[in-house]
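YM 10:42: Amidohydrolase sequence, as discussed on the call
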Amino acid sequence: MPIINRVADLADEITAWRRDFHENPELGYDVHRTAGIVAEKLRSFGCDEVATGIGRTGVVGVIKGKTDSSGKVIGLRADMDALPILEATDLPYRSKVPGKMHACGHDGHTAMLLGAAKYLAETRNFDGTAVVIFQPAEEGGGGGDAMIRDGLMERFGIQEVYGMHNWPGVPVGHFAMRAGPTMAAADRFTITIEGKGGHAAYPHKCIDPIVTAAHVITALQSVASRSIDPLDSVVVSVCTIKAGDTFNVIPQTAMLLGTVRTLSPAARDAAEARIRAIVENTCATFGATASIEYKRGYPVTVNDAGKTEFVASVAKAVAGEGAVQTNFPPEMGAEDFSYMLEKRPGAYVFLGNGETAGVHHPAYDFNDAATPYGVSLWAKIIESGMPAR
Ligand code: NI
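YM 10:58: structure's back
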């Protein structure tokens, strides 16, 4: 039971959809064109229900199997949004919108889930209900969470849910996954250090926020090295420093912006507590004051062990025993499918994208050769998870 024949037949059509999305990237919740095409196609496939405007611009299609004695409802989710990146490729279907680009392959994800919907609506060879979920604003906007707040899970009776992301570096025709924490929680901080500005020749009459900031940055390195269990994982990165305008003035303030990534709730809480204490006390040492705005973002993406085992078995059936890694290392990137996995058991799996540029790189392009594998996995999750009677 490798790639489904009918799916292979659909590959060219799906690729054409994908390249159209690629040429017309949209950001965040402003995915009106993409969502419009998705809804129109789902209707043309004969979905039993097509709902729009869920989580602002999210779209949901419902496909009922030939029978429904199982009473099961499985959700499959794709993301539709692009990134604010100027594309650096010469592809014939490169972005027509300067500064916007499908650099994370969400064009491929949307097209693949549409392909699966077309196949499932055509064949309906399952006993239960398939729900295809197209979310906006995965790239930082929390579109998945917005759909949940709009009642996604309850309204469609979703009992389990699956997500898939292309992964450069994993060969085409392969899948990779793991049970448990798979993607990190992503939190952000803005630290404002208030000193006392003045003439640079008279530092003793000032409180230098730059020297203070340097000590804060150095001390923050101890969160990962000294405060969190080395067998747990944490990243604390200061990514922006803003202070001063010239060479002979000690400024009044300094700002530090950064990100914190963790794979467990314990590490997440501990990292925040340590960062707050380090900032407050280091600043006090130098006579400066600090304010810290600490914003929690996407939670940890946690795969259910049983559902991961199930997807692995389906992936092996599609790609072959040797083409499925089931102990793929967790990633410190974040993913807002995490919100869906907080609500329902399921799994988030990586689809091999081959040796392309990395995601979020201006030369990245989703590898269309992966499409038949991704679409077959979607279809088989439904057909194996709710076998026809
Ligand atoms: Ni992505």
